[in-house]
Write a structure and sequence with these properties.
Layout: E1 27-28, H1 40-50, H2 62-72, E2 79-82, H3 84-96, E3 103-106, H4 112-119, E4 124-127, E5 146-150, H5 162-171, E6 177-180, E7 201-206, E8 219-222, H6 225-235, H7 245-256, H8 258-281, E9 285-286, E10 293-297, H9 303-312, E11 315-316, E12 328-332, H10 336-351
Parallel strand pairs: 1-11, 3-4, 3-5, 5-6, 6-7
Antiparallel strand pairs: 2-8, 7-8, 9-10, 10-12
Helix pairs in contact: 1-7, 2-7, 3-4, 3-6, 8-10
Bound molecules: pyridoxal-5'-phosphate.
Length: 353
């Protein structure tokens, strides 16, 4: 740390992104990207915009928001487009949480929540998941808090049924409830339909996972027009051109090809269930994921060792060193062929111990 770095951030522990090593070709099952490329029309749309890079992008993202509104059955005023959904989450935290409304979220969840709370100096409480890693909805029936839930949760993959989300939003209309639906296209139930009844609800989503655009950085928030306007006040105070021209064009083309992506999600779900059965046949404990990854552990081998042994064999998965989860690994679902290689390596490693 230089002697000029602000004291305010001296204790900040930044988010650790999953590794993106360049030393060799890995089967990458560590950052929940899609194994399928976007269709050629998406790359073509981005390439076409590349010719107009001298001009700023549309800060309103009007064309993209109109397409989103049509697809999700919302009005454009219900939608804000962002540079990945990470930005949507950060803006929501900035806008709707502070000393008077501290944040609460599970102890095991997306690591960025704690970082965004710290960088914005918002007090927060991490609520332990149950021993089976499920969220106990009663922990969120509280007043005077801003609530954040990933649904499905990460890295567990477990989801809360929609009625539980509704009871949490209904319990105190003074609380803002942020539901992070980064993985909802892989099986969970979206809270989008609750928006018309709950003006204290924010739903965030991303094109990074189900729509194969992690590298383009495109996310969104859905909420009442008043909440969207507040978040836009902060967006226009930080980075109004947050979605670049090529990404906005890629996003529009992606929505025009939505069936392709939803079909990929179906393939990924099938491959997830195939992988689950294969891991269970090897006596792994596997959580009931509704996302594009599995969270799994095996008593015979420490989580970190399994991660390291797979990496030596050219397969990357994600290991988190948290106290309750260090025996587990998060395994992104790739293509069926990739998962067959993964299982072959697993059997090889287990056979050798
Ligand atoms: C991947 C992910 C996000 C956001 O990713 P972006 O690439 O910034 O859209 C948000 N929440 C969870 C739980 C995620 O796993």
């Amino acid at each position: 740390m230089s002697r000029w770095f602000s004291e305010r951030f001296a204790a900040l522990a930044p988010y650790t992104p999953g590794e993106q090593p360049q030393d060799r070709q890995y089967i990458k099952l560590n950052t929940n990207e899609s194994p399928f490329p976007p269709p050629p029309a998406v790359a073509a749309a981005a390439a076409k915009e590349a010719g107009r890079l001298a001009l700023y992008s549309d800060p309103e993202c009007a064309a993209l928001r109109n397409k989103m509104a049509a697809l999700y059955g919302l009005a454009p005023e219900n939608i804000m487009m962002t540079n990945g959904s990470d930005e949507a989450l950060n803006l929501a935290f900035m806008a709707f949480a502070d000393e008077t409304r501290p944040l609460i979220f599970p102890d095991i969840t997306y690591g960025f929540y704690r970082v965004f709370a710290q960088v914005n100096r918002i007090p927060f409480t991490e609520i332990p998941l149950r021993d089976d890693f499920s969220v106990d909805e009663r922990d969120y029936l509280v007043r005077g808090r801003t609530i954040v839930l990933a649904n499905p949760n990460a890295p567990t993959g477990l989801s809360l049924p929609l009625p539980a989300i509704e009871r949490i939003a209904a319990y105190s209309r003074d609380n803002i409830v942020i539901v992070d639906e980064a993985y909802v296209d892989f099986g969970g139930e979206s809270a989008v339909r609750l928006l018309e009844r709950y003006d204290n609800l924010i739903v965030t989503g991303t094109f990074s996972k189900s729509r194969s655009l992690a590298g383009a950085r495109l996310g969104f928030a859905f909420a009442s027009p008043a909440l969207i306007a507040d978040m836009n006040t902060l967006r226009y105070s930080t980075n109004p051109y947050n979605v670049n021209r090529m990404t906005a064009a890629a996003g529009i083309a992606a929505l025009e090809n939505n069936d392709y992506f939803m079909n990929n999600c179906r393939l990924i779900r099938e491959t997830r269930e195939w992988t689950r059965r294969a891991l269970e046949a090897e006596r792994f404990t596997v959580l009931a994921s509704e996302a594009n990854f599995l969270f799994a552990a095996d008593k015979r081998i420490p989580g970190k060792t399994l991660y390291e042994e797979l990496k030596r064999r050219g397969v990357l998965i994600r290991h988190f060193d948290g106290p309750r989860i260090r025996e587990y690994n998060r395994i992104t679902i790739g293509t069926r062929e990739q998962m067959e290689v993964f299982m072959t390596k697993i059997r090889e490693i287990l056979g050798g111990i």
